[in-house]
Specification:
The protein is an alpha/beta fold. The protein is built from 15 helices and 12 strands.
Amino acid sequence: MKIPVSPSNPARRRFLLLAGAGLLGSVTSGCGWQLAKVQSAPPGKSGGDLYVYTWESYVDPQLLTDFQKRHSIKAISDVYDGNETMVAKLQAGQAANYSILYPSEYFLKKMVDQGLLREIDETELQGIEGILPALADKGFVDGKRYSVPATWGTSGLIYNSEKIPGGLTDWIDLWKQKDKLNRRITMLNDPREVLGVGLYALGQKLGSQNDPASIKRSYEKLLELKPAIAAFDTDAWRDRMLSGDVWVAHAYSTDAAEVVKDNPKFRYIIPQSGASLWVDTMAIPVSAPNIEAAYDWINDMLQGDVVAGLNDRLSFAPAITSAVEKLPPEVRQNPVLFPSKEDLAHCETMPPLSEAAEKTIDSYWTKLLS
């Protein structure tokens, strides 16, 4: 599932800084970064290195180097492949060194309810007023800010148009062509995303994730497709698609943008029946040992010059207006990163889940993977 990371081949959702055209209208030590060797550390206001716990391959070597130059603090990255992995590590007390996390917005309430996140002091933020208007209400739980928007994007389908010349327009096309696509499909390693696809194939929406009967039907629908699924994989699908082993991937838009940019035979679509619109955020864990440096990191990610410079190396669209304005026209006009208003109209954010719904989804996800 994990793939090598290099400045020329950054991975998943990039370094967390996305926005879309519709939103504008209304992200090895030898190559400049290190994986953290996590040790227990007491929470504190300042001192020591800054450990950032982020999505798989969200790391840009130059960004970490520049942070150290600006603040005389070494930034070290560790990675995870899903919100569930990140939360499990926090719950197990194995993440005491981390001062920055990147949880998806729909996961915030769960983390706050479990006492995992520190409330953000907005007086410490420099540039928060520059967040895109459509993202301005993200990062809050019960009226209190617990995170800062860093990126948004969509979860859709990328396919090889040479292998599927007729193209794809909707999720149900996977079922219609499942014999041809036998072992040629990868799905995200994410229970809510995948069970959401099953709901879309049944003509339902993500809000049905709180209904046990709907989740059961989604699971049963996905079982029909399972023989055609080569893997539930968030990252390594790209290498498999480039090699020709995989023809269709359920993917995050930022990853798809990188593949499509260099390979015109690949196409990315937002399925007509619906797609997830995700928002990833920057948060500070309650046990953070270096709160001061954590605010330095967040504030850097709120500066247009810093984010626009990062865009020269990675495929993303900033969540702050000043950085968006600095993007080249070809980036702002990229429909994979900046979907049209028409495509965005098909998208929806993940709904909050009841505790019972979470258990139901986890149960059917385990069955689906078995």
